[in-house]
Amino acid sequence: MNKVATLQYRWQIDCNGKPRHWRDRFGNLLRAIAQSIDGRASLALFMGSDPPLPTASAREIVVKGVEHMERLLKESARAQCTEILLMEAAPELFDDNEKA
Between these two residues, 63 and 6, which has the higher pLDDT value? Predict the structure, then answer.
């Protein structure tokens, strides 16, 4: 008789989501206070899966996610800079309503 293997998993990720508990609200308040003091943004991440991931894997996921975010930020800043330079060098290429 043939056996059929099934694969079942679930995952969830939430970043600065809606607070569900008083601890979430308090954490959001502390993050807001910290941001007003130092001007840096904070992320509150929730990552869950079934089956659970080892802590080292979850940590690596966060590190890789931040590295990807850094690449996206760099590309976006470069594109914005290029657009500004093109607008200054050749304004005729842009419509009046597209100018920043």
Answer: 63
